[in-house]
């Protein structure tokens, strides 16, 4: 993956979309498109004779972020509701449990005649409301992304190797 010397078949290069610094991950992109015969050949590297390396921490961080983007798009581009819906549902359930906890605690303290703080004076209440709102937003984002992906003109594009 990190070698500067790479060779690809013409059909592979035409089948993938490379942008930005994604050239590092052409084998991964090719695998996602359906090319399963990806091989590596040993290359003899020589020490740098001139100049200095531009490989630094920023390039490392950008590489990790690019790889995460590729993973996310490869896994969820056709079914975004699986990510956003699950995240939203989890956030909504956590918010609901926290809200029930805050209200139940107040009612238990109130029925026992103990001193209790108002629900709106408790930070956990605001965290639970935030979790509920974030859950709804993520779930709605999943619906919107699902509609966008279903209306995409490239939704049913397939790489056809051979026609009979």
Quick gist of this model?
The protein is mainly α and 164 residues long.
List keywords for this structure.
164 residues
Describe the structure.
There is one protein chain. By secondary structure, this protein is mostly helical. Helices cover 57% and strands 0% of the residues. The protein has five helices and no strands. The protein has helices at residues 10-15, 26-33, 57-76, 80-111, 123-150. Helix 4 runs antiparallel to helix 5. The longest helix is centred in the middle third of the chain and has 32 residues, at 80-111. It is elongated.
Q: What is the distance, rounded to the nearest whole angstrom, between the alpha carbons of the first and last residues? A: 35 Å
Gyration radius from CA atoms, angstroms: 25 Å
Shape estimate:
elongated
The ordered string of helix (H) and strand (E) elements is HHHHH
Spans where pLDDT lies below 50 across 5 or more residues: none
